[in-house]
Design goal:
The protein is flat, with a radius of gyration of 33 Å. The longest helix has about 40 residues. By secondary structure, it is mainly α. It contains 15 helices and no strands.
């Protein structure tokens, strides 16, 4: 009987302790809630909810890849890569691009390490280093294709603005109408310029940012013509018509030059790829014959000189066939 009494007393004391702890916790929660309402701390939840909403201005994600971004900022490459991604029309950040390069490097290095013989595994870093630039090459190719497509549509947009102004529309309204009448990438760039000006940015600044986003000589001519007309006056519609005519003639002349110089470009590409193909075939058929260029010091000097001369020859051929108009 005394044992039951002691057990009941312990249970009763434990229940009182639990009730005291729980009531104290609820009391502190109520006090904290009242304090947060009095001091304005209740906006913390609202701020968290607002943080999940899409922002008006897209910011760079600095929480991902801090070390990479710090190194790029130190060598002044962050702005250049960000500008390249923007001109390519890709919704990537700089850290994602660099991480992609690192992932390709590691994958190719692992594949080359597994595929090469034991005495040649130390050279696996060279194909991996070359493959690491593939994501950047992809971005550069996308940028070139997008700018070329923009350049093809640009004269038509100038004539559209000229016709719209003759019909009585303002210049900024003509820029907004281009978004509905043309396709990307031209429509998106004009829409962004119109929205920047519509949100309060002066027209001069909006056009200068437009010329910076699209680094084409024709766009610089267009921006210079509009800014000059705004300061000195004149018939802007006639100026845009003449500018569109000049751009079309330059585009035709550039096409003719590319057609004439196509043989030189193909020759340069073939002369560059033939030694690489022959070396790969020899390494596949007779590895001992090619191993001399990797294991012997004289062979390493020879292959290094051959690669350097090959790169110089390709650069000279590209310089000869590249004619700017």
């Amino acid at each position: 009987m005394p044992g039951y009494a002691i057990m009941a007393a312990v249970i009763w004391i434990a229940a009182l302790g639990i009730w005291w702890v729980v009531s104290r916790a609820f009391r502190h929660a109520d006090v904290d809630k009242i304090k947060s309402r009095l001091t304005g701390g209740g906006r913390i939840k609202l701020d968290k909810a607002e943080a999940k909403r899409p922002a008006l201005i897209r910011r760079e994600d600095v929480s991902t890849g801090r070390i990479v971004l710090r190194l790029l900022t130190r060598y002044r490459l962050t702005d250049r890569l960000r500008e390249m991604l923007e001109q390519a029309g890709l919704q990537w950040n700089v850290a994602r691009l660099i991480h992609g390069c690192l992932a390709v490097f590691l994958a190719v290095f692992a594949a080359a390490w597994a595929g090469l013989p034991g005495d040649l595994r130390s050279f696996a870093v060279f194909p991996a280093g070359a493959a690491a630039f593939l994501p950047i090459a992809y971005v550069a190719r996308r940028r070139t294709h997008r700018l070329r497509k923009f350049e093809e549509q640009f004269p038509e947009s100038l004539e559209f603005v000229a016709r719209s102004m003759r019909a009585g529309h303002a210049f900024t309204v003509s820029l907004e109408m281009i978004h509905r009448e043309f396709q990307e990438p031209l429509a998106g760039e004009y829409r962004r310029t119109f929205e920047e000006h519509n949100l309060g940015l002066p027209l001069e600044m909006a056009l200068l940012k437009f010329a910076k986003r699209v680094p084409l000589l024709d766009v610089h001519f267009f921006v210079s013509a509009v800014l000059l007309q705004k300061r000195t006056g004149g018939n802007l519609a006639e100026i845009l018509d003449k500018l569109a005519y000049v751009i079309r003639e330059r585009f035709k002349l550039r096409g003719k030059i590319r057609a004439i110089s196509a043989h030189g470009r193909m020759t340069g590409t073939a002369l560059t790829m033939i030694p690489i193909g022959v070396g790969g075939m020899l390494f596949w058929v007779n590895p001992d014959y090619v191993r001399f260029f990797f294991t012997d010091p004289t062979g390493q000097i020879m292959i290094g000189a051959a690669v350097l001369l090959q790169m110089i020859g390709y650069a000279v051929i590209r310089k000869i066939v590249s004619i700017e108009v």
